[in-house]
Design a protein that fits this description.
Keywords: Membrane, Transmembrane, Transmembrane helix. This protein is of the alpha/beta class. Among the domains are: about 180 residues, 3-Layer(aba) Sandwich (Rossmann fold), CATH 3.40.50; about 190 residues, 3-Layer(aba) Sandwich (Rossmann fold), CATH 3.40.50; about 210 residues, no CATH class; about 70 residues, no CATH class; about 170 residues, no CATH class. About 40% of the residues lie in helices and about 15% in strands. The protein has 49 helices and 40 strands. The protein has an eight-stranded mixed sheet, with helices on both faces. Helix 10 packs across helix 15, helix 45 packs antiparallel against helix 47 and helix 47 runs antiparallel to helix 48. The radius of gyration is 32 Å and the shape is globular.
């Protein structure tokens, strides 16, 4: 480091001219002042310049400006200071009151108004307040061309000085920039030429041991290859670094990285970016347009942008591009590592993470951060070192080496693990997201065999793979010694306990402590047989085919930190240390590895996901349009996966069938009769049409009855049949690397064109070619990833909506989080909210809802339409600067013309982590709205705030808190509106869904307690997931309706979004006895279609479970298709058990079609059939349908039980899916009611012809022994304490957790 500093100093002295006016007296040590007036300046450095420019500026002021006689007063603050130092913001505000100059120093292009200035500085309002606090005559200067969005103060931009933040950065230019600010303020007598920037350094190569910097590659290579560092024949690795770390002397992280790469036998080319990142990178890392490196560690936060130039360079380079990250803007490295909040990156650091993904960078590993040593006594700037996080650098280096190994190793020698999922959502059977698992595995293994991989001697057909998986590759539900012995005898993997103990002892003590506190000392008691840990799986040559182990749940929340079991740990340690996997391929949906406890991103050695994946390259095959899978379930950020997108199942325009086709024909006949004036025929046809509407269950769906005028019924029926035909029906599943048959392909193309026929009809051939390319690209990209090549990035979107997502086979990302909601989303989301309010008012006598519960699960798919809807309800407009959301403008009530509507924001899938800045804007907006001088009847947000604040305040004071603290805390709590899961929790953990899926004897009280226990964690500025069940309960009592944005045109894709509305409806009914309507805004149309939850469910059922075409398409896919049908039935039960969304007739048709029609039943995989049987019987037990005793006996036989049961006896019967029936299932019926459930109708029974596509031959016989339970599920309970919690808030404004105040969940009364 000393050597580096000396070289840097020499370079600066010999290469950079200095300011003439400043030079005259610097060398003569005169202290004569050159100031024309006393001047105080405060500089605030924000964004990426923090940590590097501030020490350079401090040195320029101390060692250059003051000795030269520029003795103005300078105070330097940095953006991170307000997060690290609790008193810094107060001092900053005090200093601003007397300053003459306030200089905002940030990299040009970043928004200035919208920067987050820590916990107390919320743009837009606070920057305006800061400007207002300046004394008369004070001036604000901003680096670069972007003007802050403030009024009433003189703001001067410095567009010509923007380069000082990056390409022209040097101590000399920092000095000149400060002098220019003084010159423009009239404080010094200098000319513009005196302060003009001088040229910065060119892009260069530099090694800490090198005698100089190199602007050409050849001399660097000559030097390097003549040192002992050089390893002849070893791979070369490029490292890209920002020049500012070199110039500021903050090189510890990169010197450590370079040293560790070289210590592992790699040669290194360290490149420092100044001004031409792509051109210089091509010069340094490529020769004749061919890469001379085998991996690129891209540490630059900018320079490489998500644009065609960068992506083309990465594609040409064709090596893995890793994107490690620092933490330095929000906290110190030590505090980040030791904090229990495990929040992950925020603000600009999070923005960089997203930008990296948009470029195709992978593996955002934490490699360093700031270490604080105290303030400078003269300028007050916080002195920081940028220090290495060695565990992160070690993992980065090991993973770099692993990727290089994939490039160098022969395919025949590579060991690969192919991991599928059968328990992520308690499926109990191998399941994928829109993928035919067995056919896809067959295709993949055959392609690998052709590429030279060792795949064993099997014939690799889908039937052969199905048989292998069923024999030795499924997690057993019943973990008895008998079942484990069967697995062992079938040839699964066994790990001697002694071997596991050796691996386990190498884990950090903190992780071992978590496991042993819950699951006991190693090796635990799960999946242990004959002193070995049993791992289901099959070896096929060098390929291990295995299911991901079950992340067991013990029925409690464990504060959202449920560690994996010993068997789960053993599986991934076996891949690392026993099997020695060169790579792992996860297939078809998200798993649970990436959901294990730890930081949301930028993980430490004390986090589970990165520890268990270790250094194994991870490739994850995911459906192209599912952002829940692609990014938010942090496959990329926590398990370091390269994702490979695959096509959605083919979709086609819905063909009318049964009674719908009959009605369509009758409507056509009526029009003919009407045209000819045949009144008798018109009367007859009217009668037939009315009868058909009744048989189809369409009265409620259309809002008609027997007295409705036929003209009204006719118009509504015509519109509905058109709408139903416009819904896209998914047909079958996708097979990885394969196109559907030609007829289905053409219908798929028709469906894509139908989204925008005006612009797409002429592009039919292009669309076909994109789909054809997708099939080949999927398999080629998988093989290329396994060869350590670069996979191009692509957004996670539907091909129906966005053709740019084709071809598939690319590495998915989400969006630029700073722009959410984007302009298109603002238009569509606002329109959807407007139309929803119209629909609500039409059904409520013109009254507005006081509170709308809004789910934000659409933000990635839609660019934030739900956020735009929230703004619309609140009566505000978003404000943007440089394309980034920086705040909101409150619309006056006189312009708004209606009340401000309160919101409860439901985030059941941790989407808030994708848009932290947006959530801060919402939180700050609500803070401003509750303080408006508006009547409660025109501001429902304020109305509820005042009521809750008074109650909270009284209870806090009664509990012993002083009045000032009670007032501040009551204010913070009463304006909280964002609720979700515990920080870092599994979205599929202890939720209501899991109770419904895992046990049959649940009660409404248990479900309500589960909801308030698991979904009541409050979020906002200063609130990072604080459990607040009483607060959520109070808000739920005010909810009048719910709204969900549904961005898909095919049903089934957004089922989890429906579930949010369903559970909120259930809770409102449970707490208040009120039945509320939920609205689904279908926005994948020209104008948003607003439908009730019941109407949307009706439409989905008409297109899926009750549609013969849909069913046939699934059944021809074999076991994967039958699993898809079963899961759809489970989803329906989950909704219908909580809220009345389907009629008994629906369940009757499901039972008749799938259970009692032998031609259909024979095509089902036994596990799928048992799942359907279980939920049909539950529907009977709960009063959703009535089954005969004979039917119950038949279902009991399907479940492998000895005798039938109607579910109402007092005994308890174990089910094959981990649940129980009977016993306490005595409540009967649905837990709550809403609008009556609707029943799509068909004319006559649905007839399914037997398929000859292998489903029957692939299924095992009916005589299989019934599996048992793998674990029990009980109602979740909160972490135990010495008493119960009132509002359960801790850590804000000195607030402490109040214990022993009488209730935890609050009075949950109907």
């Amino acid at each position: 480091m000393k050597r580096f500093l000396l070289i840097a100093l020499i370079l600066l002295l010999i290469s950079v001219p200095s300011v003439s006016a400043a030079d005259n007296n610097t060398t003569s040590n005169t202290t004569e002042s050159k100031m024309l007036k006393d001047t105080e300046m405060v500089v605030l450095l924000t964004g990426c310049v923090v940590g590097t420019v501030d020490p350079i500026m401090n040195e320029a002021y101390r060692n250059d400006l003051l000795p030269a006689g520029y003795n103005f007063t300078l105070k330097i603050y940095t953006m991170d200071t307000f997060n690290i130092n609790s008193t810094a913001s107060t001092q900053f505000k005090n200093d601003l009151k007397t300053v003459d100059i306030f200089f905002i120093f940030t990299r040009p292009g970043y928004p200035t108004t919208g920067m987050s200035y820590g916990t107390e500085f919320d743009a837009l309002v606070d920057l305006q307040a800061i400007a207002a606090s300046l004394k008369p005559g004070a001036r604000i200067f901003v680096l670069g061309p972007v003007k802050p969005n403030i009024t009433g103060v003189n703001v001067t931009n410095l567009p010509a000085y923007g380069p000082v933040a990056a390409p022209a950065l040097s101590r000399e230019n920092i000095k000149r920039t400060l002098l220019e600010v003084l010159r423009l303020s009239g404080a010094v007598n200098l000319t513009a030429n005196d302060t003009k920037l001088v040229p910065g350094m060119q892009d260069f190569l530099y090694h800490p041991l090198a005698p100089q910097v190199y602007t050409d590659r050849a001399p660097y290579m000559d030097w390097y290859m003549n040192t002992t560092l050089y390893r002849p024949g070893a791979p070369w690795v490029g490292v890209a670094i920002l020049n500012r770390y070199y110039l500021s002397g903050n090189m510890d992280v990169y010197e450590t990285l370079i040293q560790k790469l070289e210590s592992r036998g790699l040669n290194v080319i360290p490149y420092f970016y100044c001004s031409d990142p792509i051109g210089a990178s091509r010069r340094f890392f490529m020769v004749n347009n061919t890469s001379v490196i085998d991996a690129l560690v891209a540490c630059v936060q900018f320079g490489y942008w998500p644009d065609n130039q960068t992506i083309t360079f990465f594609t040409d380079l064709n090596v893995p591009v890793q994107g490690p990250l620092p933490v330095f803007l929000q906290t110190s490295l030590d505090d980040y590592i030791n904090s229990t909040r495990q929040q992950g990156l925020r603000g600009l650091e999070y923005y960089w993470l997203s930008m990296f993904e948009m470029q195709g960078r992978i593996e955002p590993i934490l490699i360093g951060g700031s270490r604080i040593s105290g303030p400078d006594p003269l300028t007050g700037v916080t002195i920081k070192e940028y220090v290495a996080y060695e565990p992160g650098i070690d993992q980065l280096v090991n993973r770099t080496l692993a990727w290089v190994n994939l490039r160098k190793k022969a395919n025949s020698d590579k060991k690969l693990a192919m991991v599928y999922f059968d328990s992520t959502h308690d499926e109990g059977m191998p399941a994928t997201n829109g993928l035919n698992l067995y056919r896809s595995l067959s295709n993949i293994l055959l392609a690998m065999r052709a590429a030279g991989y060792s795949t064993g001697n099997g014939n690799l057909t889908e039937e052969y793979i199905y048989e292998l998986i069923n024999r030795a590759g499924r997690n057993p539900r019943n973990m008895t010694q008998t079942e484990l012995r069967k697995l062992v005898d079938a040839g699964c993997i066994t790990i001697p306990v002694s071997e596991y103990l050796k691996w386990y002892s190498g884990l950090p003590a903190s992780l071992r402590g978590q496991v042993e506190a819950l699951w006991g000392p190693a090796p635990g008691n799960i999946m242990i047989y004959n002193n070995s840990i049993v791992i289901p799986g099959i070896m096929m040559g060098n390929i291990l085919l295995a299911p991901q182990p079950v992340w067991k749940w013990n029925g409690t929340l464990n504060n959202g930190t449920l560690p994996p079991t010993h068997q789960f740990i053993a599986f991934y340690l076996y891949l690392q240390k026993g099997f020695g996997a060169d790579a792992v391929v996860h297939i078809g949906q998200h798993g649970t590895l990436e959901l294990l406890p730890g930081h949301v991103n930028a993980m430490t050695e004390d986090d589970w996901p990165n520890t268990l994946i270790g250094s194994i390259p991870n490739i994850h095959l995911l459906k192209m349009e599912d952002p829940l899978e692609a990014v938010i379930n942090p496959t990329k950020r926590r398990a370091y996966a390269v994702t490979i997108s695959y096509l959605i199942p083919p979709v086609m325009r819905t063909e009318l069938y049964g009674v719908y086709q009959e009605l369509s024909d009758l409507m056509g006949s009526y029009s003919t009769a009407e045209a000819s004036g045949d009144t008798d025929r018109m009367n007859s046809l009217e009668s037939l049409i009315r009868d058909g509407v009744t048989r189809a269950g369409l009265e409620v769906r259309l809002g008609v009855n027997s007295s409705t005028a036929f003209s009204v019924l006719r118009d509504r029926l015509h519109e509905y049949l058109e709408e139903l035909s416009g819904i896209l029906t998914p047909y079958g599943l996708h097979t990885f690397g394969e196109l559907p048959d030609s007829e289905t392909l053409e219908k798929f193309i028709d469906a894509i064109i139908s989204f925008d026929p005006a612009n797409r009809t002429a592009r039919r051939d292009e669309i076909r070619n994109l789909l054809i390319m997708s099939a080949s690209n999927e398999m080629n990209s998988l093989l290329r990833a396994l060869n350590g090549e670069f996979i191009q990035p692509v957004s996670a979107r539907s091909p129906v909506i966005n053709l740019e997502t084709l071809p598939t086979g690319r590495n998915m990302y989400t969006f630029d989080p700073s722009s959410i909601p984007d302009p298109a989303a603002v238009v569509i989301g606002s329109r959807a909210a407007e139309e929803m309010l119209k629909r609500y008012r039409n059904s409520s006598g013109g009254r507005y809802p006081e509170t709308v519960a809004v789910d934000i699960g659409d933000v990635i798919s839609t660019g934030g339409q739900s956020i735009a809807a929230i703004f619309y309800f609140l009566g505000v407009r978003p404000i943007y600067e440089s394309g980034a959301l920086i705040g909101t403008e409150i619309i006056p009530l006189s312009e708004l013309g209606r009340p401000r509507i309160d919101v409860v924001i439901s985030d059941f899938h941790n989407f808030r982590g994708a848009i932290p800045a947006t959530m801060d804007v919402i939180d700050n907006t609500i803070k401003r709205i509750v303080n408006l001088n508006e009547s409660s009847e025109m501001n429902y947000v304020r109305k509820h705030y005042l009521a809750m604040k008074a109650g909270i305040y009284a209870e806090l004071v009664a509990a012993g808190m002083n009045t000032s603290e009670a007032d501040a805390n009551a204010d913070r709590l009463a304006r909280t509106r964002i609720f979700g899961l515990p920080p870092g929790a599994d979205p599929h953990g202890a939720g209501v869904d899991r109770i419904l899926w895992s046990r049959d004897d649940w009660t409404p009280e248990q479900l309500a307690e589960t909801y308030l226990s698991y979904y009541s964690y409050a979020y906002g500025r200063d609130l990072n997931g604080v459990q607040s069940p009483k607060l959520l309960e109070s808000l739920l009592r005010t909810v009048d309706t719910t709204m969900v944005i549904m961005p898909y045109r095919a049903p089934g894709e957004g089922t989890c979004l429906y579930r949010v509305s369903v559970t909120v409806n259930f809770m409102v009914n449970y707490l208040t006895g009120r039945n509320i309507n939920s609205y689904i805004a279908r926005t994948a149309y020209g104008t948003p279609l607003i439908r009730t939850l019941q109407e949307s469910t009706y439409d989905d059922l008409a297109v899926t479970l009750l549609n013969p075409v849909w069913v046939q398409g699934k059944l021809r896919e074999g076991p994967s298709g039958s699993a898809s049908i079963a899961l759809q039935v489970r989803d329906l039960f989950t909704s219908d058990a909580l809220v009345d969304v389907a009629s008994p007739d629906v369940w009757r048709r499901i039972a008749d079609t799938f259970l009692f029609d032998s031609s259909v039943r024979s095509q089902f995989d036994p596990s799928a059939l048992q799942m359907i049987a279980r939920y049909v019987r539950q529907a009977h037990t709960r009063g959703l349908v009535s089954l005969s005793q004979e039917e119950l006996v038949a279902i009991s036989e399907m479940l492998g039980e000895k005798s039938g049961s109607d579910g109402n006896d007092q005994g308890t019967t174990t089910t094959p899916h981990g649940g129980t029936t009977g016993g306490s299932a005595t409540s009967g019926g649905r837990t709550g009611t809403g609008s009556p459930g609707l029943s799509p109708g068909v004319s006559g029974a649905i007839s399914m012809d037997s398929q000859s596509s292998g489903a029957a031959s692939a299924s095992p016989g009916e005589g299989q022994e019934r599996a048992g339970r793998s674990y029990e599920i009980s109602t979740p309970t909160a972490a135990k304490s010495s008493g119960t919690q009132l509002y359960a808030i801790a850590g804000i404004i000195g607030l402490f957790c109040l214990l022993g105040v009488g209730y935890y969940f609050g009075p949950m009364r109907k």
